[in-house]
Model the fold of this input.
Amino acid sequence: MTASKATVLIVDDEPDIRELVEITLGRMNLQTTAAATLAEARSRLAERHFELCITDMRLPDGSGIELVAQINRQYPQTPVAVITAYGNAEAAVDSLKAGAFDFVSKPVDIAVLRKLVDTALRLRAETEPAGAGEPPVLLGEHESIRQLRALIERLARSQAPVHIAGESGTGKELVAKLIHHKGPRAAGPFVPVNCGAIPSELMESEFFGHLKGSFTGAHRDKAGLFQAAENGTLFLDEVADLPAHMQVKLLRALQERAVRPVGSEGEVPVNVRVISATHKHLADLVAAGQFRQDLYYRLNVIEVHTPPLRARASDIPMLAHHVLGKLARDLGLRRLPALDASALAALQAYPFPGNVRELENILERAATLSDGERISAADLQLRDAAPIAAVAAPAAAALGDQIEEIEKRAIREALQKTRYNKTRAAELLGMSFRALRYRIKKLGLDAE
Done:
């Protein structure tokens, strides 16, 4: 989204680099203004507005980090990119933590520079990009959610790697989607991947792709997840589950901004923003030697915490109304099921070890098993609350799977007893035919 009126401030004391950047941006139909020192850059900033600033890390009279901090403070609408020395990953991370939009390493790669500039200038767009689709929504009015929404707005204007920490079911993928959707990569793909769900022996091929004939079964070239996320966002969920050999390869891909497909002799440049998440404590895993410290610092440039549902019980009525509305649409109900006072009180007193995901499961079960228009506390079938400290996140995550298996077994047995007469099976299970049909589809039993 480059435009002839966009002007870029280039700050570097090396004339050759200034000239290279000016020529590159000139060919992109951009205007440029150059400065050789920190003082000169500050003077230019006081004179006019810039759509983008590109600054060297080392300047004769100061640091590019100082300029990044000043622009973020005084001109927050102007993204800043930093030029760092080759291989100086620490400086790159420091610049991102200071608020830099992105960085490019010396010697400056023209293709990388052009992509960086194009992405930065998309921030000027005030309307949603074409094809962005219906935006996701982070519901809640609790102060923790208000702060989280404000942080998402700021992070969307950066390309810094973000790590989202929080218990299972707190909406970590939703936060990642919002950061993607509200940023300049919104028109690009959002590619989520569960790092714990990929077999170790296939992981390198899945992430980086492979060439035909590179191993048994490789009948054609295949692009990896990084290539699939080109110009967009790669969301690495449960990143703590990555085995040691993939941690090394992921670190290199992040540092070099390039991947090497299995069987290839060369690397393929990639333009991808990486957002990671896990319900585990990465710092503890680093201390235990189970997660690489250098990868941890690379992924955890900015950390975001998703609050547990029990910490914002005041949001439960709003969340419940939203979930029930979606269920009513999915089930084809004429009226929205309503929670009575006893149900609301029970939900707000419940600790929710499974967080928002557990709330959705509870309401879905209550809505599908009840034909009434109101849901009471008894309809919720809340299990006895266990002390929160004793409920491990993995156990909470597995709870939903256990409930689904119980439901599947009960439905299969009812169908077998009634010789697959769904009307009679629904009566046997004490639910409506429509609710049974919905559960069969939801649980994937229609494919059996």
Observations:
- Confidence is low (pLDDT under 50) at residues 126-132, 385-399.
